[in-house]
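Bumping with the actual sequence this time:
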Amino acid sequence: MDVSMTLWVLTILGLSALIAIDFFIGRKPHDVSIKEAGIWSIVWIALAVLFGLGLLVFGDSQASGEFFAGFITEKSLSVDNLFVFVLIMAKFAVPSHLQQRVLLVGVLIALVLRAIFIAAGAAIIASFSWVFYIFGAFLIFTAWKLIQEARKGEDEDEDEWEENRLLKSIEKRFGVADRYHGTKLFIRVNGKRVLTPLMVVMLAIGTTDVLFALDSIPAIFGLTQDPYIVFTANAFALMGLRQLYFLIGGLLKKLVHLSYGLSVILGFIGVKLVLHALHESGVHVPEISIPFSLAFIFGVLVVTTITSLIASKRQAEREAAESAAEAPEAEAGETEKDSVGA
């Protein structure tokens, strides 16, 4: 799709206005209710749908299909980010009323960093078409790793989150206050300006997302090579992530098959990239269409969600049955102790 500089500017201004409205409405720190998170989640999804339909009306069906495929892929991959966000919030003991501010700024940092990744990726693809082989192989390898981690039962990352080197160096350079000071990002301690824990956790959220971008950016380039669609799909997926965190935070543990679903999606896109690279090299191979990609990705997510909920329900029933079976034994043990004591 031919995108003029004017359209780029208008799009960025429009997204900035939406972010400003979101920030203004949630400017006062507070605990986010399920109702509030649900309403805003619907708003962001509706805006994404309207944008995709706008591409269909003013652009073409190809661009619209690529946007929806990219948006759904990025949205599903971003859900995986929420597991790490939960760990980061717990590690830094972020007060519940400050979590929305942390996520808003953290996601903004992530969006800026992803924009840099997208620009770099677009420039590389434009100059070296063989990079599709690398992207495809990387996604297939990442899919295999996800399956291996899922088969282990529990990832090590689920138990503990470690700060990256960049974050550690920033903390060492500036110093960190020993407690939160409301929404302040910097304070002065003994005349020296230091970071507050709030600033550190914002940086943690933003920089950690870069690790997820290493697979999500190649994945969306496997669906479209249009930088405009790649950027907007990422923007809409990320900007609704904050509300999604509060909305499905309690359901994350129930998505036990999410890693399997994401691995299938990444593997599928990896194969699509390799086929595209072969086609570009003059090899006659079938290419996977965008409508098929969209249907496949959506279908995998639906199946994964259903099987996850079924598995979680069965696990809960087994645990309840085991607890019920252990209860009489425990009572019998206590009675026996009382008898001996008497």
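The tokens above came from a reply further down the thread. The CA atoms of residues 200 and 263 lie 31 Å apart.
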